[in-house]
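Form 7-S
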Amino acid sequence: MEERAGRGSIKPYLDKLTLGVTRILEASPGVTEVTFVEKEPAERHTIVSWEQKNGCVLPEDLKNFYLMMDGFHMTWSIKMDDNPMPLGSMTINSISKLTRLSTALAYTLPNAPTLADLEDTDEEGEKGNEDEPEKPHLDSRSLIFELDSCGGNGKVCLVYKNTKPVVAPDSEIWFLDRALYWHFLTKTFTAYYRLLITHLGLPQWQYAFTSYGISPQAKQWFSMYKPITVNTAQLSSEADTFVNKLDPNKVFKSKNKTPVLKKKLASQPPASQKGPTGPGSKNPSQSGSSARR
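Output:
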């Protein structure tokens, strides 16, 4: 896997950070050029400035994520006629690109409608399903920030429904499709991050969480490179497998805690506790059996 590293390397916990999908992709037939772009941590004052500017507090797990690395970008390609073709893309915008969703004019004509005017406002769209939270609004009732542009297939957004300055963050992750319909994804950034990784960044994977599903073309890619979310419950219960359960308290750390993690990883048992090694060394059970003979 190609890695484009920054100054503060995250290699010691790269496997946990990507939930082990780098190994899955590299072992998949036809997959090539698995690339992870390593990014510098965001400065704490940058995050504070963002919160002051936008009048809201970042969720704690998203804040810790930015303190560890300022954004996320992982891609992979497949071989088509011996040439690489980009297919999977996993992206989380940096703090500087976590911008409020524009409600500017949808057209450049005089008195043209805004995105808020074009939003679905019928009774069904307003209430949504009984089990689904109240939908966001593109007007002043909600604060909406873009986490991922999804390659033009829609937008994954961090949504605050309470637009008043709040002490405790109250946010959710929603998907806005190209027809300006909202689809609930997760209540926390950590849960969304897991969805992003385990769906391998396949094209239009977000539409799997809509009532109309993914396109026929996307279904072909899904059938070839099935997202590992199908076995998520089983995989997360197996703590010893390389597909690790994401723990934001251990993985999404601020950069001043990173050296502690590296120190733990570097620790090894003393030489006196290590058993003999080499081609001539024997297992203790073998030595005992030899003595009895």
